[in-house]
User: Which sequence fits this backbone?
């Protein structure tokens, strides 16, 4: 018998027809899926493009941002042992509040000594003025003495001239016997007396002039101590008053006060500890004036300008609390440029790294008061560069 024979051609065609139809339907479904997927991708691309044009191109964002503040470093301006420290770490202080006290005993003594020195200086300078007045009067008196001595000398010269003439006439007459010996002797005595009086008057004038010169020198020296000054602005008094002011300032500086409102941090003193002039005692962080330093990539800074609005969120409060601020300025260099050890790129295996530049952002004080921030907290920053 002949071997088995396959189905006739008509039957084979009937079997293949359903398989071909199933394949065609599957291909149609795949095309439909690809079309839908392509449409979805196209729609998403259009949505993304529209978002970029309307929103994304107008904003630059970074999560590399941190809270900062101009921390006040409190230092001791005088030396001495600490006797009080009424504040501690994390305490809130107000400007002018006492935060530490240095033993004032030595500075009180210095103040008392400066007051005594000022009193001595004022009395000493007062004596200078009194001496100047007294020596001025004395010089005037010596000048009057010279005038009297000159008048006495003129009178003595006149008497001497008369006595000399009379004595000469009596001597000539005595030779002819017209004048007795007694008269000649009397005339001679008057002449010698007038001569002695003239010498005394000359000596008196010289003495008066010498005394006047001495008095004038003393008066000049006394005047030099007070010339062009008064008791209030004399150099000695001014120097003593300056020492008193310094002593008062040093005493006041034994009480250390907070220079700003803020929170105490890094306190490094305790009661009994001796601090030196200029030593740091603590820091005060003015959280009410905190700012944010946001580190943006260099390619993001093309449109960043001072005054642009910024929206920020913090990890501390979450996305529900938004802070608003403004761009205060862009840093003068990248973070790596100011590193302790700057990068050296002059090597053969150098790889370009996108640099970041700090942007200073000021915050709304009212929002800071409502939701205080702390230095070093992480922030997310979004700058609106459309304006």
Assistant:
């Amino acid at each position: 018998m002949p071997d088995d024979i396959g189905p006739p051609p008509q039957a084979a065609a009937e079997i293949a027809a359903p398989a071909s139809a199933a394949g065609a339907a599957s291909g149609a479904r795949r095309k439909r899926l690809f079309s839908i997927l392509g449409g979805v991708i196209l729609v998403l691309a259009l949505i993304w493009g529209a978002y970029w044009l309307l929103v994304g191109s107008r904003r630059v964002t970074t999560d590399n941002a941190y809270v900062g503040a101009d921390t006040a470093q409190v230092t001791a301006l005088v030396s001495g042992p600490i006797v009080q420290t009424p504040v501690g770490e994390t305490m809130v202080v107000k400007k002018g509040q006492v935060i530490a006290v240095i033993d004032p005993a030595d500075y009180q003594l210095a103040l008392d000594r400066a007051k005594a020195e000022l009193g001595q200086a004022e009395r000493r300078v007062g004596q200078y003025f009194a001496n100047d007045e007294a020596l001025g009067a004395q010089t005037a008196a010596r000048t009057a003495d010279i005038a009297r001595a000159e008048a006495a000398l003129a009178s003595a010269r006149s008497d001497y001239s008369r006595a000399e003439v009379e004595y000469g006439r009596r001597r000539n007459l005595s030779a002819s016997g017209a004048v007795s010996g007694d008269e000649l002797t009397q005339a001679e005595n008057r002449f010698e007396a007038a001569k002695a009086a003239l010498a005394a008057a000359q000596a008196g004038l010289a003495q008066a002039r010498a005394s006047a010169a001495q008095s004038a020198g003393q008066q000049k020296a006394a005047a030099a101590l007070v010339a062009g000054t008064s008791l209030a602005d004399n150099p000695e008094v001014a120097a003593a008053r300056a020492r008193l002011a310094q002593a008062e300032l040093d005493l006041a500086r034994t009480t250390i006060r907070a220079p700003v409102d803020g929170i105490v941090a890094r306190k490094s003193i305790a009661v009994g500890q001796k601090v030196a002039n200029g030593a740091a005692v603590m820091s005060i962080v003015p959280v009410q004036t905190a700012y944010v330093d946001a580190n943006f990539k260099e390619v993001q800074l093309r449109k960043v300008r001072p005054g642009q609005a910024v929206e920020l969120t913090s990890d501390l409060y979450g996305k529900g609390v938004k802070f608003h601020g403004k761009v205060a300025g862009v840093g003068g260099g990248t973070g790596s440029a100011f590193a302790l050890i700057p990068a050296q790129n002059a090597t053969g295996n150098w790889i370009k790294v996108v640099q970041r530049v700090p942007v200073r952002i000021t915050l709304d004080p009212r929002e800071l008061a409502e939701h205080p921030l702390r230095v070093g907290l992480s922030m997310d920053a979004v700058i609106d560069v459309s304006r």
